[in-house]
Amino acid sequence: MGEDHQGDGRGRPAGARPHDRAADDAEQILARCRIHDAIREQEILKLLHARFLEARKKAGGNGANVGFESFVRGISSQAERLRESSGCEQVELRLILHEGKVLLKARPGR
């Protein structure tokens, strides 16, 4: 609370340069997992869902409004689209805190 958080007057943190994308794109990974099939791997997704709800509450959002079944349906459809577009077998799911918002991002598994 006693820290001074002055910026440069243009909405950037003190010391940030106009082309300093690292300051703008900072993401904190809260959880990560890889799945083949969202329907068959529900134990992993239950853990991810719990972390998602917890993170949203800590970030000041309402974590109670996303039910597990809805969460799995969303992941399943996102994973299917990603598999079709990239040809990957696995999908990596990342729970991220970015600019005070909790996001769930998917990308082809490596």
The geometry reads as: globular
- Helix amount, in percent? 25-40%
- Figure out the total of helices: 3
The rounded distance between the terminal residues' Cα atoms is 42 Å
How much is the average pLDDT?
Answer: 79
Strand order of the largest sheet: 1-2-3
Question: Could you give a short account of the major beta sheet?
Answer: 3 strands, antiparallel
Number of strands: 3
How large is the share of residues in beta strands? 15-25%
Rounded radius of gyration (Å) = 17 Å
Order of helices and strands: HEHHEE
- Secondary structural class: alpha+beta
What number of domains? 1
Q: Spans of 5+ residues with little confidence (pLDDT < 50)?
A: 1-24
Description:
This protein is of the alpha+beta class and 110 residues long. It has one domain (28-108). Helix content is 36%, strand content 22%. Strands 1-2-3 form a three-stranded antiparallel β-sheet. The radius of gyration is 17 Å and the shape is globular. The chain starts with 20 loop residues before the first helix and ends with a strand. Residues 1-24 have low confidence and may be disordered.
